[in-house]
Amino acid sequence: MCSKKTKVVFLINSLGGGGAEKIMTMLLENIDREKFDISLCLTCENRVDYDLDKSIPLHKPNFDEVKINTILSVAIKILSLARCLIPVSHFSKMHKTYTDVSNNLTHLFKSFLATRRYIESVQPQILVSFLFSSSLIAIALKKLSKGRLRVVCSDHCTLTKELKNFFPLTYVHLPRFLFKYLDIYVAVSGGVQQDLVSNYHVSPEQIRIIYNGSDIEAIKSLALKPISSELERLFPDDDTFAIVNVGRLAPPKSQALLLRAFQIVRAHRPCRLYLVGQGELFDELTDLASELGVEQDVYFLGWQENPFNIMGKCDLFVLSSSWEAFPNVLVEAMAIGLPIVSTDCPNGPREALADGVYGDLVPVNDVDALASAVIRMSDDKNRRQEIARMSKERAETFALSHMTNGYEHLIDELS
User: Fold this and answer.
1) Gyration radius (Cα) of the chain, Å
2) What kind and span of H or E run contains 42?
3) Surface-to-core class of residue 79, CB atoms within 10 Å of its CB (0-12 exposed, 13-18 middle, 19+ buried)
4) Using the 8-state DSSP alphabet, how is residue 11 labeled?
5) What is the DSSP string of 367-381?
6) pLDDT tens per residue, range 333-381
7) What is the pTM of this model?
8) DSSP characters for 188-242?
9) In DSSP terms, which residues pair with 55 in a beta bridge?
């Protein structure tokens, strides 16, 4: 007689083109569906950039159908006003702050109500949430279920970094309060685990470290695919040293630091820089490239469905981040055999690169150190080839199967 499948609903803000969203897609498509009855619920936005296997149920809430009652509306206004006053804001900024916070809180409550409606209809045993807003919703749903639901959260970030611009009285205390009610927190690196223990008082017994997985063979295959003719003209066959960075154009990724370092490297030798990604800092970064006089050798390629064939045409991958949780892109670069220079930021690069064995680590926000490391790597072809060889083996440590098995064992543990 077949045992009954464990019903699991996975929650995520959206399937927009980010790292956590990509990991969620791969996890769902590789988890054992003979054992687990799974579905995915988008909690905050109905955006889908990744093609999810159509056999996996995908719920997109209709936020227009969700109504906020008078009491909740008043509570949102009070919380929004408090956020304007603590710390005391400049009067001219208060209206915008109030409006932004009010809109965000309203949408969060609508997200919670819409998600609750779906969870009540599906009646799962376990919720697995990715990203902080979805984690808040999952923990609140567990409280309302009076313990019937088990909850696994993974925010795929270093929370003290990501939440520092939130309401000062809550960015530590609210998660610290809520995390008392989760069952398991999945940290994507040892550094994230330490952040949770030190700053949010999560018990080490409640934490499991499961590194993000990568489909190593698929990455290798995609890296060999030809790039479009439009992109091909940006890679002239002239032996110019090619540097690539892949990531959101956003403050944590610190591409401005990379541009300043590139200016120094470019004075040393001919080189090009390819930035793959989109984000709110696009205009600021293109302006900076012009200001630094390097715009002719810097290429902003936007979001690419297949970034790996672009990476495969480059000589060096550079991660310039100020903070991460676990940078999947380092594993992807290693799988392709691309040498790496990375900032030694919290958290993840040091773990991925094994304390610098599989790539060079430099201090965070140090333009000269980053430029020097890139120059050393560009000047030493033998070292690049040796790192490339070792890195392909290292990438197997973070194979997709290891992550999938980790989540399957965790769900079994809670069933």
Assistant:
1) 22
2) strand 36-42
3) middle
4) E
5) HHHHHHHHHHHHH-H
6) 999 999 999 999 999 999 999 999 999 999 999 999 999 999 999 999 9
7) 0.86
8) SSHHHHHHHHHHH---GGGEEE-PPPB-HHHHHHHHTSPPPHHHHTTS-SS--EE
9) none
